[in-house]
Amino acid sequence: MRIELYHSAYKHLFPDNVVIEELFNQAIWAEGPVWIPKENAVIFSDVKGNCMYKWQENLGTSLFRSPSDFANGNAILPDGSLVTCQHGSRAISHTDTQGNFSILTNNFAGKRLNSPNDVVVKSDGTIWFTDPPYGILSNHEGYQAPSEIIGCYVYCYVPQDNTTYLATFNTMRPNGLFFSPDEKTLYVADMSSVEFSQQGLHHLVAFDVVGHTLENRRTICEISPGIPDGFCVDKQGLIYCSCDNGVLVITPQGEYIAKIYLGKTVSNCTLGGQKQNQLYITATNSLYRITLNTAGFQYNNCHHSQ
Q1: Residue 78 contacts residue 125 (beta carbons within 8 Å)
Q2: Is the pTM above the cut of 0.70?
Q3: Residue 194 CB-density burial (10 A; 0-12 exposed, 13-18 middle, 19+ buried)
Q4: What Gene3D superfamilies does this protein map onto (predicted)?
Q5: Which of 19, 184, 203, 277 is the 20 to 30 A CA-CA neighbour of 247?
């Protein structure tokens, strides 16, 4: 494990005594880390293990939910409650701060979703998620079934009116997604190379956010080695994107500036900690942490509500 710096102007991102810590290594396929400010905890999924874990400082890792309905991506709402992508029920679920559980959405226009994969929450409380087919292709990450929707899209669920909007048709295999700090741009990992290895996409793309829809698709960069899965964005707008052997740090213009090299396939990451300066990374069977000289922006409203 090491840091590779490609652009000296960004050396300040990494403290001189930077350490990459492995916090847990008992998952089958760790995914979907999210920081829960009110509990000072990270909740993350083990998709293939059909369970979810909670990690806390000084307490370590405990089982959060089992079975998890093949949970994948997670995010929090402005009130600190949890939203989760569930391959098994092909749904987005909600767990409130008292632990009460409900399904928010599992269909579009009366047709079942494929298998919601990753999710991000806008500051207005709208829930944006991707819907590739990975949970219905086999019984390893969900339940094998035919798709009822011709295509894999990005959706916006609005809790206020319980409506799911199709945000864009213009994706092949959308996976991870995250807003820019001003929420005017939504970045999406489009990665059809999983099924089409020779000609498939492994790109990070961006859209303009217009109401409940996405417009003006453009390519930020091609992710190599491997594919873009999950990622997050810091308050400076830098993108921390998963790849085959670590986390690539990328400018909004698509320039690689550094890599956090882990030597194993990374699935996702999130910024958390009390100062929002700790990058939590899920990679194959493990959860890692690295403290950076930057901070996230997604959970500021949660801190204010305490």
Answers
A1: yes
A2: yes
A3: middle
A4: TolB, C-terminal domain
A5: 184
